[in-house]
Amino acid sequence: MKIERIELRRISLPYVSRFETSGWFHDGSDAIIVRVDADGATGWGESPVSDGPWYNEETYETAWLMQKKFLGPMLLAAEITGPEDVRNVFARVRANRMARFGLESAVWDLFARMQNVSLAQLLGGTRDRVSVGVSVGIKKDIATLLETVEGYLADGYKRIKIKIKPGWDIEPTRAIRQRWPDLLLQVDGNSIYHLSDADHLKELDQFDLLLNEQPLDHDDIFDHAKLKKMIKTPLCLDESIVSPDHARWAIELDACGVINIKPSRIGGLADARAIHDLAQAAGIPVWHGGMLETGIGRAINVALASLPNFSLPSDISANDRYFHRDIVTNPFTLNEDSTLSVPVGVGSGAIVDEAFLDEVTQERLELRA
Ligand code: OSB
Ligand code: MG
Predict the structure, then answer these.
(1) Catalytic residues
(2) Nearest alpha carbon to residue 218 among 349, 6, 57
(3) N or C: which end of the chain has fewer CB within 10 A?
(4) What is the predicted pLDDT for the residue at 309?
(5) Class of 122-341 per CATH?
(6) Considering the chain, what is the average pLDDT of its residues?
C-alpha cells in the first residue's frame, strides 16, 4: 500500500493556563497535526512540538521542515504493509523524533481504521481504562500551588506531579505532603540539576514520593546511574530515553527504577512499545508521560497506555485540564476512579472537529505522491 496524501497543519491553540517547568513555559499548543490518506481512509497524528528547543531539540519550525523536505517525501515514496514499516522508512533520519512521530502515529491510526479495530487493539492493549494524574507547573507561590492542587483533587485526580527547580523543590513538596499525607505524589525537574546536587535531591526522600523524574541532564544516563545509588526515591528517566537502545543502556547501567514513556519523544509507537516490552522483561515499571497534547495526540497516548506494563498513573489528564475548546468533538472526561476510558471505536477514537481545526490552523501544507 502507498500513502497518497499527507496534510500538515501547524496550529495555535491556547491552554487554560500557563504551564511552567524548570526551564521554560507554554501558553498554548504549537503542535503539528498530521493527516494521511490512502485507499479512501484517513489517519490523524500529532507532533507535540513547541515554539522552542527547550524539552528536546525540536521546534514546530524544525519539525515542519523535516516533514516537508525529508520525512513526508520518504513516506509517500514507500511501499507499506503495516505501521511497523514506518520505522524503517525513516531509518536514515537522525533524531527529529517528534517530527517522525507525527507521521508514524497517523499511519498507525490509518491502519487501525482500515482494519476496523481500535488503535489500542492494534497495539496489543489489555485495559479498558488507564489510570491518570495531573502534572502541575511551577506557580508563583506555595499558596497558589496548594490551591491549584486542591482544585485537581476536587476534580477527582488521585495522583499529582509537580514541576521542581532549585529554589522550588523541597518547600513546595513539603507543603503538599503536610496537607495531603497519603497523596500519590511525584516530582519532575526537567534536567535542571547536576550530580553535585545529590545531597539536596536526597532531602526529597523524606516525602515518600512515587518517583523523581529526570533531575539530571537531558541526554545523561551515566550520572543518573550514580545518583540512583545515592537517593531512596525511585529514579525515573524521561528526556534521556529516546530509543529502545537508550532504554536498554539505562537498564543495564542501572540508571533508573522507572521509565516514563512518551511515544513522541521516542519517535514512534512501535519503538515506544518495544521499550514497554523490554522494561517489562527487566521488571522495570513504566508509565505514560505527556506533552500537553491536543485531543488527537491524547487519544493516541491513551491507546498506548492501555498496554499491561503501564503500571503507574499517566500524565494524560482529561482534555479540559488543557483546553477550553479542543480540536476533537469527543474529549476525554475523568472517571470517578481517576481513570480515562480507552476508546472502543475504530482507530485512536479521536473525532476531529475539522471546522475548529481550520480556525486554529496557522500554516497548512499538502504533499502528494
Ligand atoms: O517533562 O513531562 C514533562 C509537558 C511539557 C514538556 C515536558 C513535560 C510536560 C509535562 C506535562 O509534565 C504532562 C501533560 O501532558 O500533562
Ligand atoms: Mg518529564
Answers:
(1) 163, 262
(2) 57
(3) C
(4) 96
(5) alpha beta
(6) 98
| Cα–Cα distance, 52 to 56 (Å, whole number) | 9
pLDDT tens-place string over residues 85-99: 999 999 999 999 999
Whole-angstrom distance, CA of residue 294 vs CA of residue 281:
32
Side chain identity, residue 276: H
Angle made by CA atoms 189, 131, 185, in degrees to the nearest 5: 35
Query: Rounded CA gap, 118 and 212, in Å?
Result: 33
CA distance 112 to 107: 9
Q: Is 136 in the pocket of ligand 1 (CB under 6 A)?
A: no
Please give the pLDDT value at position 85: 98
Query: What kind of architecture, by CATH, is found in domain 5-116+350-368?
Result: 2-Layer Sandwich (3.30)
Cell of 75: 513516506
Q: Which amino acid is at 312?
A: L
Domain limits of the chain? 5-116+350-368, 122-341
- Backbone dihedral angles phi then psi of residue 118, each to the nearest 5 degrees: -80, 155
Percent of the chain with pLDDT over 90: 100
Q: Scanning the structure block, which residue is given the C-alpha cell 508514524?
A: 104
Residue with CA at minimum distance from ligand 1 atom 5: 291
Q: Whose CA is nearest to atom 13 of ligand 1?
A: 290
Check pocket membership of 29 for ligand 1, CB cut-off 6 A: no
Q: Tell which phi-psi region holds residue 100, choosing left (phi > 0), alpha (psi between -120 and 50) or beta.
A: alpha
- The pairing of strands 258-261 and 235-237 is parallel
pLDDT confidence of residue 296: 99
* Mean pLDDT calculated for residue range 151-159: 98
